Amino acid sequence: MRIVLVGPPGAGKGTQAAFLAKNLSIPHISTGDLFRSNINQQTELGKLAKSYMDAGNLVPDEVTIGMARDRMEQPDAENGFLLDGFPRNVSQAEALDQALKADGVELDAVLDLEVPEDEVVKRIAGRRICRRDSSHVFHVAYSPAKKEGVCDACGGELYQRDDDSEETVRRRLEVYHTQTEPIIDYYRAQGLVVTISALGKVDEVTRRAMDALEREDGESSEGDASA
């Protein structure tokens, strides 16, 4: 299957993308990984992206799209892929459609992870990270430290990152609503959107997503057969 994963910050896209890609035996293609890989390998697109980033500017859509297209054309993506973090806006979605059409393929589904805004704020703003080891992460509600403000693992001080503050999270949600959320309507008009609740345990959400995608795949196959 060829899938685009969308959802607000805090919806658990990265976690679900990894599980879903493994279950479906397709590569997980994330924007962050694309940038890191191209920059580390010093590809032409990577050098171009870095020049914009070093200057403090946004990387143009055409550069991001070029990286995504190169990755989707790799042998391991021949039978499908899961895109995470791309497309981020309608213009990127349109460019993706054009690129796939040129390759004679199309998307099978756009999986929309739905989470109430207050829950997003609670999830992100409640995170606390160890200053000694950033891999030690706690949550004031879901996985609190035994002693407030102190890391269970090493005794280091726990703190809240600046970009995890409620004010910052709400600004990130505004950007999502303005720039990324419109692609859901764009894809809904094509009959591709599958919306599921991202509330609950990780494995519950994964199963919910797999069931929804399997139904979508079955309906698509029936449609192809009847056509």
Q: What attributes characterize this protein structure?
A:
alpha/beta; globular; 9 helices; 5-stranded parallel β-sheet; 8 strands; 227 residues; 3-stranded antiparallel β-sheet
Describe this structure in words.
Helices cover 50% and strands 14% of the residues. It has 227 residues and is an alpha/beta fold. The strands form two sheets. The chain has a five-stranded parallel β-sheet with strand order 2-3-1-4-8, sandwiched between helices. Strands 6-5-7 form a three-stranded antiparallel β-sheet.
Order of helices and strands: EHEHHHEHEHEEEHHEH
Helix-strand category: alpha/beta
Strand content: 5-15%
Largest sheet: 5 strands, parallel
Q: Total strand count, please?
A: 8
Report how far apart the termini are.
19 Å
Rounded radius of gyration (Å): 19 Å
The largest sheet has its strands arranged as: 2-3-1-4-8
Shape: globular
Tell me the helix content: 40-55%
Mean pLDDT: 91
Low-confidence runs of at least 5 consecutive residues: none
H/I helix tally: 9
Question: SSE layout and pairings?
Answer:
Layout: E1 2-6, H1 13-24, E2 28-30, H2 31-40, H3 44-54, H4 61-72, E3 81-84, H5 90-102, E4 109-114, H6 117-125, E5 127-130, E6 137-139, E7 158-159, H7 166-180, H8 182-188, E8 193-197, H9 202-226
Parallel strand pairs: 1-3, 1-4, 2-3, 4-8
Antiparallel strand pairs: 5-6, 5-7
